[in-house]
């Protein structure tokens, strides 16, 4: 179903579509339009449902969103009213600016082509500009796919795409429901899990081998990488620093890590 039909749908019943000028992405409001967008296979970035509202349609939306790994937030009506002045019926959603792709298909395809996958896994990177800058680094430095969690990740909105300089339109993004299972899958597929963390005895200047199939894990600036993900890493590496500030911006750190991987790959050729 094309967007034109959704707009017609919005004219026939309460709810519909409009442009969110702040984020430059399409907003859907109303229970039925959101349900039918899910049924049509549209990629939704996030769904907001009014807290305490329960009926058969909200139940269907919740179930379909769960299967599609679309984050749902239960929010007060004031939050919904701040998003749109239209008759939202207690439901607002955003269409995604990117199409999320299955990680398994990407990994299989890369191995079939005889390539060593380079996957970037982001744990709780919530700032959209940091996420956009990381995506730009990833595209420039040879990353095959970016993995983000379905909950606790930055919204892929206009600011993220702009900061990425269009990289988010070029590099595959995979939204995974359970990063622990994702890391286990990557490890079992023969991909080494490398965590960039200060909680390591290995430093990047030690010429650590970063060739072959790799998944680089970057964590939030506040807490770093979650302990359950660190446990699943095959190698932990810290970036050497000599200044008084104890940490780098995560987008800068990702650029340093990915450059080292690219440098070693180029030397192998």
From TrEMBL:
GO BP terms, alphabetized: methylation; RNA processing
Keyword annotations from UniProtKB, A to Z: Methyltransferase, Transferase
Entry keyword Methyltransferase: yes
Domain (RNA 2-O ribose methyltransferase substrate binding) ranges: 27-101
Entry annotated with the keyword Kinase: no
Coiled coil: none
Alphabetical list of SUPFAM superfamilies matching this protein: alpha/beta knot (SSF75217), L30e-like (SSF55315)
GO terms of molecular function: RNA binding; RNA methyltransferase activity
Database matches in PANTHER family: 23S RRNA (GUANOSINE-2'-O-)-METHYLTRANSFERASE RLMB (PTHR46429)
Protein's name according to its UniProt entry: 23S rRNA (Guanosine(2251)-2'-O)-methyltransferase RlmB
Naturally occurring in which organism (per UniProt): Adhaeribacter soli
